[in-house]
Amino acid sequence: MSDGDESSRTRFEWWLKDLSIDPATRVAGAVLIIFGSILGVLTGGLHISADIGDVLSGQLDDSGLKADVNGAVYAALINNSSGAEGMEDVTVILYDEENLEIGRDITDSGGRFSIQDVTRSSATLVVDHPDHITQRVLLVPGDHAQIVITLTEGEGVQETDMRGESYLSESVLITTLIGAFTLLAGIAGVIGGVEAYNGKSHLRTQFLAYLGLWSQGLMFIGPLFILMGMGLTYLSRGQFGLAEA
Q1: What's the pTM?
Q2: Residues 155, 203: Cα–Cα separation, whole Å
Q3: pLDDT tens figures, 213-240
Q4: 3-state secondary structure of 245
Q5: Percent of the chain scoring above 70 in pLDDT
Q6: Residue 218: CB partners within 8 Å, gap ≥ 6?
Q7: Given 3.100.10.10, 3.40.50.980, 2.60.40.10, 3.90.1150.10, which CATH number is that of 57-164?
Q8: What are the backbone dihedrals phi and psi of residue 79, each rounded to the nearest 5 degrees, phi first?
Q9: Contact 67, 107 (CB under 8 A)
């Protein structure tokens, strides 16, 4: 090793030594951990407070008692050569449990329809078009993002029950659990940052900051700040009252 390399290494080691004994290094690490963890707390709070029905389907209103029924009507595929395109000018009618009409729409050029602001209770969607089998779909408005209906040429009525196919409640539970875990992890990280700022226990600081990594504030931004903070607090571990040698 040349004298220049040795001198450069020595200067680098002295620079690290200066950083390790400078209280500002520990404080900077604490601030980074706290900031990254706060991002995680905010992320967890958004998960818990968000209306998962609105996130999944974009159909529920603020009260949760009204919803939109959106979907599309397509022609059945015939011999792999024709059909499967959206059907225009098809009347779509929504009936309540008492068979009273509560909304209707006519499909556009792409076969799309939308019946807005209907009560979130069991209803029947009826699609009746000349020379095609009538489709009756039992559903709860708001449980599905899109209702896809295929019309087949012929006569008669075909009924489909979609009321038992919604996983909205399970999605609410999973999202709430994830949000709660993210929130608690973020809080743990904030406590770890405070611990680093006070300089009491290096081991406890690193453990709490590690938990804070799981808060995933803004995906990777929060954990990145926490990792940088952990690096600085490790470098300044000699400043902690209970730090290991």
Answers
A1: 0.49
A2: 75
A3: 888 887 888 889 999 999 889 888 888 8
A4: coil
A5: 82
A6: 39, 43
A7: 2.60.40.10
A8: 55, 30
A9: no
Provide CB contacts within 8 A for 185, sequence distance 6+.
40, 44, 211, 212, 213, 214, 215
Provide the residue ranges of all domains of the chain, joining segments of one domain with +. Answer: 57-164
Three-state secondary structure of 31-95: HHHHHHHHHHHHHHHHHHHCCHHHHHHCCECCCCCEEEEEEEEEECCECCCECCCECCCCEEEEE
- 113, containing H or E segment: strand 112-119
Q: Would you state the structure tokens that stand for residue 143, as one six-digit string?
A: 């449980």
Amino acid at residue number 56: L
Q: Are 54 and 67 in contact (CB under 8 A)?
A: no
pLDDT tens figures, 24-81: 888 998 999 999 999 988 888 877 765 454 544 444 444 457 888 999 999 887 766 5
- Judge whether 136 and 157 are in contact, CB under 8 Å: yes
